[in-house]
Amino acid sequence: MMAPLSEDGLRTLNIKDFPERHDWISLGLWPARPFYSTGSYNTSFYSMRDSEKELFIHRLQRVHNTVRESAYLVLKSRNISKKMEDSGLQEYLDSNLNKKKNSPILDMTYFAKYQPQAGFKFSLDGLHNVPSNSKLVVGIYCLNPPGAFYDPDNPDIKDVHLNSNFNWSSALRSPQYLEGFATFQDIKFSRHLHVLVDLKKVDFGQVDPVISDVGWTALPVFSPDGYVMSNIY
Length: 233
Known about the structure:
The chain is an alpha+beta fold. Helix content is about 15%, strand content about 15%. The protein has four helices and six strands, in the order H-H-H-H-E-E-E-E-E-E. The longest helix is centred in the first third of the chain and has 11 residues, at about 50-60. The radius of gyration is 25 Å and the shape is extended. The two termini are about 40 Å apart.
């Protein structure tokens, strides 16, 4: 693709020369993204599991609401029951649904209902502002229920995940872990299922390391209507 030139053809154009964004596309400074159906994107290296393919089938089975119906769902969630003309709906949405700097591009939570064979993934990427500035803090997590690791009579470590592979370039009070995602499959849907995250401080200053509690939290896995609570927390 040739770079756009000035009228005399002696220099290439730059977006810095045109402060108005709407001029960029017409001048060829900001080519519009091609539609996926054009075949412009290389997907030859992408592989998909059979269980993931089934998610698309379940997605196609969902009822597709019109924009008007979806707008009324937004109004209902805000306890507004009055009927509006389309222009009124658009005006309301424009004034209340504002895109912010941290607004997600695509919310994958409601792409498709949870399917046990596809499962879900969880990753403990790191911590921030841990209270200890001289001791290593590791993370362990497991699903609850059953939370068998915390059974006082018979603790079971079989399904506990340990994060102790540090990014040694990260800050001691904001450590990053390199374990990546853990996959949970064939887990039955339960509204009350959550991931228990437990943080432990490890003191290697003695012959036998001393382990002490730092903190813990519980992250819900599912929404009440059967979707995985996909997000970054």
